[in-house]
Amino acid sequence: PTAPPMTSARWRIIALFFTHALAAGAIHTRIPDLQVAMGLSEGQLALVLMGQPLGALTMFLFSRAIIARFGPRRAILAVLPIVIITAALATILLYPIALFALLALNGLGFSLSNIAMNVEADRVEAATGARVMNTCHGIWSVGFLLTSLLGATLRGMHVDPAIHLWALVPVLIALLLFVVVPMPVMPPRPHSGEKVKKLALPTLATLGLVAFGLGAGLTEGASRAWSIIYLRDNFEVSPFIESMALPALLAAMAAGRLLADGHAVGVGATWMKVGVMREAGALITDSQLHRPARRDLAARPFKRLVFQYRRIGRMFRARHRNQPGHTKKSLQPFLD
Predict the structure, then answer these.
(1) Is the Cβ–Cβ distance between 51 and 98 less than 8 Å?
(2) DSSP secondary structure string, 220-272?
(3) Checking CA distances to 43, which of 100, 124, 156, 268 falls within 20 to 30 Å?
């Protein structure tokens, strides 16, 4: 017997988050290999890696109109293959400008598909009455962890990045089609048809939250991009051990998401924020002034830092939802 439509919608949106993570995370363990193949210095690599966030930021300006015009499902089917294919193309177009352009396209696809699947998850919650958003994001972390473990293993086995990423292309596209094509169409939120401002100025409270979350976001992003390179350049370890910095990071991300609510309830959000910032600052300082002598401890700062980041992220979103006057409608430019 076939699953009821609502049950199908729930498991398919969860599976979509998992597929998205597999597609988005595949290239990250291979960035050090691409750096070596192109002979880039750390500064040159940093400039090239700016392509992805620039592409993502550009898409934020147009994502609402695209999703409103075509719907989340069509948007995902159109742009998630771009994420998959650009990652693979990066292994054969070994030129800095080409990699910058591919990462920009990758960022465009990542950003739009990310917003679209969150819109769809929000609609599934509204239509079914079941909470799925936290589960979706937890599963996303698990998927990112698994794809990074795969990348670490293949690096340890000295498998060429092109073989790794091109072999994933048909697998991930087939999985995407299997999950998304039969996905039931969820009705938009009741406020979807209302006119909203094309550009809404943030309140002072929102700016304060953004300022608070910016440091955590920068720390998490830098750790994701540079953790493997840090181990490679500072420790005499095998490629497999180098690559395990990213899985350690992602495991901490998942743990932080799953445990943050319980910690906030137990000690209070204010004291939790103070403790998180204090420990994160101490870890950053300690990792620079006292680099671990034992190579098996090298990935520990990344794990602990991002565990704290995920706890901050949970409080950041919860505080925004609890601002006076905040409603789902205030997120309209991103949700519908």
Answers:
(1) no
(2) HHHHHHHHHHHHHHHS---HHHHHTHHHHHHHHHHHHHHHHHHHHHHH-HHHH
(3) 156
